[in-house]
Design a protein that fits this description.
Layout (H helix, E strand, L loop, with lengths): L3 E4 H4 L6 H11 L3 E5 L1 H5 L1 H16 L6 E5 L10 H7 L4 E3 L11 H12 L6 E4 L6
Parallel strand pairs: 1-5, 2-3, 3-4
Helix pairs in contact: 2-4
């Protein structure tokens, strides 16, 4: 779709701590996308990435930088506090599944994602093993 994507395996600086690499990537990214899965919610790095992104977004007045995609069937009550705090301030996108067709097809999902990402400025997205940040 013409967007740049920051991949941790490709972009992270060897010898630098993971925490510093994550913070640098968040700071240099225009958008941060969290793909909410059961695996992400179990991951300590996923929680760290969510908290760092939340702090950066809201301290810098960049609340619009966070996009949440709910991939698994997860209730808001099962999400960590940091995600609950973001949840009420942002719009989330549901990954299409058989239960919500025909209103949320894969084609419509990607169109919503493209609309959420489009802007005149260049876009860099960070992707880590646990989430797209």
């Amino acid at each position: 779709m013409g967007f740049e994507l920051c991949l941790d395996d490709k972009e992270f600086i060897a010898g630098e701590s993971i925490a510093v690499n994550v913070l640098n990537a968040i700071d240099s990214s225009r958008k941060v996308i969290f793909i909410i899965t059961h695996e992400l919610l179990k991951s300590s790095w996923g929680s760290y990435e969510m908290e760092m992104t939340r702090m950066h977004a809201f301290q810098k007045g960049r609340e619009d930088m966070v996009i949440v995609v709910v991939k698994d069937d997860i209730k808001i009550t099962d999400m960590p506090e940091v995600m609950k705090n973001m949840w009420i301030k942002i719009t989330c996108i549901q990954w299409p599944n058989d239960d919500n067709l025909p209103y949320n097809t894969e084609e419509l999902f990607y169109e919503k994602m493209k609309m959420s990402l489009q802007r005149r400025e260049d876009t860099t997205l960070l992707y880590s093993r646990n989430s797209a940040v």
